Amino acid sequence: MVESSGSSLQVSGWFRPKRASQPPARLVGAARGRGMNCRAEVLEVSVEGRQVEEALLAVLHTVLLHRSTGKFHYKKEGTYSIGTVGTQDIDCDFIDFTYVRVSSEELDRALRKVVGEFKDALRNSGGDGLGQMSLEFYQKKKSRWPFSDECIPWEVWTVKVHVVALATEQERQICREKVGEKLCEKVINIVEVMNRHEYLPKMPTQSEVDNVFDTGLRDVQPYLYKISFQITDALGTSVTTTMRRLIKDTLAL
Amino acid sequence: MKSSSPDICIQEEGRLYPPCDSLVESVLALKGTSVLYRFVYAMDTDLSSQDRKDLDKFIKFFALKTVQVIVQARLGEKICTRSSSSPTGSDWFNLAIKDIPEVTHEAKKALAGQLPAVGRSMCVEISLKTSEGDSMELEIWCLEMNEKCDKEIKVSYTVYNRLSLLLKSLLAITRVTPAYRLSRKQGREYVILYRIYFGEVQLNGLGEGFQTVRVGTVGTPVGTITLSCAYRINLAFMSTRQFERTPPIMGIVIDHFVDRPYPSSSPMHPCNYRTTGEDAGVTYPSVEDSQEVCTTSFSTSPPSQLMVPGKEGGVPLAPSQPAHGTQADHERMATCTPSDGAHYIVTPSSSEDTETVSNSSEGRASPRGILEAVLVRKVGALVNNSVDQVTMTNLDIPFAMFAPKNFELEDNDPMVNPPDSPDTESPLQGSLHSDGSSGGGGGGSSGNTHDDFVMVDFKPAFSKDDILPMDLGTFYREFQNPPQLSSLSIDIGAQSMAEDLDSLPEKLAVHEKNVKEFDAFVETLQ
């Protein structure tokens, strides 16, 4: 049942990411080649089918809240000013939980799209209902022609999702509350990690800003990020690998 | 900058330029004698005066914004602010956090021009108050400063951004503690109050086993700022699912003291606010003073030159959201501002039975420094008591029970209100009535005539002298309830109620088998 499967935060700290939850090999190769460690955090949630989207959105938005700034406006003399980030409380319909996200419809739409795809993939896979979604923050490093730009991840958040099926209404009610409490714990864990003030990319100059930030949104400016997901079986190996990338800038392959 | 050499700052047209030799020379050349020199000695080692001033400003506004976030999160409604891509100069830490003028006013009052420092923390206390007047502390949010300094950190840039990150963390954490869900459901049965105080953190009111969550820390050259929350987990009957207006039943009592050591300096406020129309004409100054604009310019090249935008920041914000969920049908919460500046909450009772502890202080300060404590007497199992009996105790003054009270309470406690004379009527008779209606019985001791108290030693007519000379109060208490059932008083370890219940089916089965015998027995009786 929900409680026994549990949700635990494994904080990995500074280490090389495990194989199973690896983003595509190309990116990892770049990281390894540079000898730069990528911070990886793993969160696990056990939810009912209809709670998948809200649980994922809650986690992703909480992370992005901390990893987004206002829009930069560069002025002469190398100074810049930062726009204002608004926030919104979002109540979940299927979970007793409220989370805060940045007030940006574009960002919310992008996240909802990928989470919806994940949910569909989970449903269609017919497997055990196990999957994981990775939110990766990366920096672009321009390479000389003919080599393409490298993407160097500096932080990866992986959310492992386990879908349970419940029989009675009472179980569902309990699940609402339990998952709400678990998500509260997840938020506290996320904040804990954020508070460590570990590596963050340096504030870029105007010419470099697109290598660090996603400047395509109208009202906020998150760090460059990618979201990908996999449906896994119980052993954690990938049964159906479905990769979706949300890359705002074109990336020549 | 070493402290040995003075910092030369050039102030021109209201702008401060950090010291730089070539700049001084070039300006001198241009302006001649119209340049104003100011020699400023750095106050701290390695921290320029400009940085120090900026840091103080950041900490001050961080404290104010922290209070805003916390109180707004407990208003009971969803908060929504808009992002704006162009900076306005008034959004501190690049976050759109509204400023409720009343809250800022209270926060500034509590801070009284000081900043959080070692041993002087800024605390926001969130508590819950039921319509019956019982209150309970739910959370204490603490903004503390300790001595661990980070000299290397850049004030105008890194510290500012980390404070911004900390505010975002605070936004997330305030939705996650148990009090959030309680506050979303406030309204008819209870309201959420806040209180800001400055000084030592007091965690006693949170009950046993309270938990702490750390929101985050930011190191600065003058110390490390820590933001944390201690919250109560022993919510007893306060679980959101089960909260109903039922009278206390056996075993479930509200037994909380609310100790307010500084009653007059930091009163409670509701976590809601009214439109200006209902505010009875109380207006608060706009938040930002003309000098205090937030820095919105950053530089990518060190050393960062801070350009202070020339225009005024600050938008006076009138609370435009309507009062939410606080206007219950039959009860109104109104704030009044007595002349001494204390805020009290007045809750007129809707019925005679409801007793409130709130001090209707139209111009009165807290009762002569008496600690305000709420004690609800445990009600015996079979007593038909629909009224919460409340007495006030003062923990400092001896014989506090006899101190004059300022509340319109029906006090039935014979210890406090001994009947005047035992001859007129049976005092036991009068004091055995425990519902509120007969509070006046037994000699007319209502709550109002407490000027002189005389301990009267009773010897009721039927009490025997050879047994311990029992006085009325002891007798009353001892024989108020029937004695405990022997089956309930045996050792719990030996046989718990649960086991009794479990063995019931078997016992029933046995009895059912012998039903014929029982029937025969009954017939013999007839």
Radius of gyration of chain B: 32 Å
Assembly state (oligomeric): heterodimer
Low-confidence stretches of chain A: 1-35, 240-253
Largest sheet of chain A: 6 strands, mixed
Q: What order do the helices and strands of chain B follow?
A: EEHEHHEEHHEEEEEEEEEHHHHH
Shape descriptor of chain A reads globular
Mean pLDDT of chain B: 64
Structural class of chain B: alpha+beta
DSSP strand count of chain A: 12
Largest interface: A-B, 45 and 45 residues
Taken from the alpha-carbon principal axes, the silhouette of chain B is elongated
Total beta strand runs of chain B? 14
Give the topology.
The complex is a heterodimer of chains A (253) and B (526).
Chain A (H helix, E strand, L loop, with lengths): L1 H4 L3 E6 L10 H10 L4 E10 L3 H15 L1 E3 L1 E3 L4 E4 L4 E5 L6 E5 L2 H21 L4 E12 L8 E15 L4 H26 L14 H4 L7 E3 L2 E8 L5 E5 L11
Parallel strand pairs in A: 2-9
Antiparallel strand pairs in A: 1-2, 3-10, 4-5, 6-7, 8-9, 8-11, 11-12
Helix pairs in contact in A: 3-4, 3-5
Chain B lengths: L6 E6 L2 E3 L3 H11 L4 E5 L8 H25 L27 H11 L9 E10 L4 E12 L8 H20 L3 H7 L5 E10 L11 E10 L2 E9 L37 E2 L26 E3 L34 E3 L7 E3 L28 E2 L13 E2 L35 H6 L39 H8 L6 H4 L7 H17 L1 H11 L1
Antiparallel strand pairs in B: 1-2, 1-3, 4-5, 4-6, 5-8, 6-9, 7-8, 11-12, 13-14
